[in-house]
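Q: For a teaching session next week I want to show students how multiple molecules come together into a single three-dimensional assembly. I've collected the sequence lines for a complex. Could you give me the predicted structure tokens for the whole thing so I can convert them for display?
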Amino acid sequence: MNKIFTTEEEILESLEKGREFCLSAESNTRIKAELSAYADLHSIPTAKAIRSRDISIATLFFARSRTYALAMILILISASAGTSFASEKTLPGDFLYPVKIRVTEPVRTALIVSVKEKASWEAELAARRLQEATELAALNKLDSQTGTFLTEEFTARVNSSLAGANTLQTSGDTEASADVRSGLEARVTAHASILALIAEHTDAAPSSEAGSETSAVQSIATEASAVQATITKERIALEVEEVGTVTEPTRVSPEEVFQAVVALTSTQTTSVVGAAAKKPSEASAVANQGGDEEGTLPTQENAERNMLSEDLSGTTQVVPEVPPSELQVKERINTSTTTCMKKNRVEHSTVRETAEKITRTPNKREQERATEIAGILEKNKALIESFASKVPILK
Amino acid sequence: MDQESMKSEFLRAYEQHADEIYRFTYFKVSSKERAEDLTQEVFTELWQELRKNELIKNTRAFLFTVARNRVIDWYRKKKSSSLEVITESGIEFSGDGSDSVTQHAEFFEALSAIEELDDASKEVVLLRHVEGWSPQEIAMFTGESANVISVRLTRAMKKLQELLHVNK
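A: Of course. Below is the structure for the complete assembly, covering every listed component.
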């Protein structure tokens, strides 16, 4: 079949026919299938990791898919094992803080399935923001911008925690809802008091350049106490509605414990104790609104409370006219805190005993709340002390 | 772009360009199997590039460049490989006269003459007259000037006519 080409056109024509020379249908199908499988096997590296570059500096480190995956695994492991990831203890302004805020915590939030646990975790996050504010304030590093950020984050977390509690309530799980509220209240209460202490002292500090810091601490402290007041009020209202009895918010008195600490570190002892004394009356005012059940409270407890306030006034009286030395203050905080903690524990057991006589759950929560608050105070003891020693109370 | 849309775009590119890449590699390596393997490799490389989120302005140019490099790599490997492989590939080439060859008898007639040309001329003739590229496009692809390509093309065609005993 040797065809003789006669013209150039014929050559060109035959060459053009070469365009019909194609992959055979079966090869075409096979290659296509193999390429499709290849594309699935070597899929696009987590597109999100690349896209979210602008979200924070921290995510830049995760631009490579493997690193990202590895980091995720590490976070998961650290979260599940309960060990703290490097970023866990960071403060705003730290290098790894964005990791904590944008990666570690959201990942944990995303991993929690149950509404109750999620709401509790949100409460924990709210507490963390206040803890950070406290630590920054103690270091005198809390500027107004960070303060605003932390306040916003705090209120956002509180709101989602409360939203979770509401969801639980509407779904009929009032028990879980009350647990969440109680935990949140305890955390906010403890942190609000610490912040109040610091705000008070930065206010007292006559440092001129600390103007902005002072206002930042004060605003976040105000916000925290406002939130705390709201939560407490809500809880009391709910208890009134459901149980018909009111467990007084100050019956177990971790606040008083703390204010005893405050009292010792402050020159304005009377006002603080005054405030502490005001609290129960406020609470009973609320209680009166919702149907007075004061009379059902065991007298034993009233006696205990009186004992504690005696103790408080006793320590108040000990504060001499002459300002104490730094060492003395420290010593007193130590002894006062430990004795008050002890006293608190004693009261816990009594509360439990009496609680079983009336209604079990609210008192159990009271106790848990007290433990939580005591724990947070204990955790911050060193900070409060160091802060107290820095404060010019000897002026 | 997510995996699915990227993949469908990739497979669309395959459907569009697979045949011309296959032809291009086939003309260079003269073996269907080898050309199929090379075609697959070329598209694998395209996927890798898409995956890296690299912007490919001209998919066709990219594919041809990769194909060209792959063929060069293959020749290098072939040179260093055993005699057995070379003869094997020779057998494959001569034994290639199956269905597709008889279907495109005239083309293969011309092709056997083209085989006599040097590689550069062969490439120019194929791209110009089979694939229908303009001399400018070929110049862009090979990185030479359009003039050089035109001259080479004219000479190659003259040589081809001589080889095929075209009566003037």
